[in-house]
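Annex B. Sample input.
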Amino acid sequence: MQKKRVLHVMNYAASYRGNFIDSLEALDKKIAEDGMGNVYMFCAAARENGSMQWISEMQQRGLRVFFLTEDRKADTKLIKKVMKDENVVAIHTHFISMQQFLPVYFAVGRNPIPVFMHMHNHSTEAKNPIKRILRRYIYRRCRMISCSESVYRSIERDYPNNIKYSVDNGVNFERLDDFSQLTHKEFSIPDEDTVFLIFGFDFYRKGVDLAVRAVEQLRKEGKKYSLLISLSTNFEMVEKNIRDIIGELPDWVHIIKARNDVASLYNFAELFLSPSREEGLPYSVVEASYCRCSVVMSDISAQVNLKIPYGRWCVAESVEDLSKAIEASVAEHGLKLKNMDSVRNQMKKNYSLDNWAEKIQTIYREVMK
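Annex B, continued. Sample output.
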């Protein structure tokens, strides 16, 4: 008898697989208990950059992988074919826009197959009432899964008639236990500098501008701090943005290429900064908290309720408050290092990947029983 499959349709083309793909593969193992498995359908861009290295590894392990084309008719036809050939019993979408969802919509048609839309970021209410009505109509059959309680409240507002679930993101903590010991010399950072880390692929949403201003202010006060900005793309744009903000690219800012062994960066830096203006439930904050670095976060709704040992929150968009939080976190960093076993146990209890996969499995079971 052919195995039942869940088709994951994803607008995902990162240069490394990251925690997102770890999550889907953990789910694949979990739903195998019910005689099911995943099929993976990536966006067209995933063929054209560093994604193919880790996607090819998935294919070599026998996982079922397909690619969209960005042509609506061709993609509708492809999804229909995969649904039939792979015995697809549910579709689960990730990161896709309404335009990207349309091939799924047309492929499903009147088929009663359940469609899950995973909301990895807050829903943004359409200002145009016609567009708002259209969205609700196109998504009317979707069962929406939010990555946090904060995101759940946004979809509750924008899609009151849809069935909804709230499932906090989970993290593959095992991959964070394997890391390299990095040195200041590798990044041309003076040995006496304290190192902060931030992810900057979305410069303003992640609050990189705030971090740069805060560190600049602290350095003017005589602090020896350096900032690592990890990027997978947009290197020139980030450099330009920094020059626009403070007039130069200072020697204490180090723009580096993102790496799959992210734990090496987390364990090298003393603080991880997340002064974001918007988040769903950031994997990075949870990952960093499990590692040796302390975490400083903005008090936006998606972060303020996170259970982060030795985490510090600052007022969103306040450079002054971010500076104060950085100083306080540096001062108490040694306390976290003394209690790492307790920290890691707490993080596993609250955000384990197994817990996440089990909750998604429960949702599948309820819908497909």
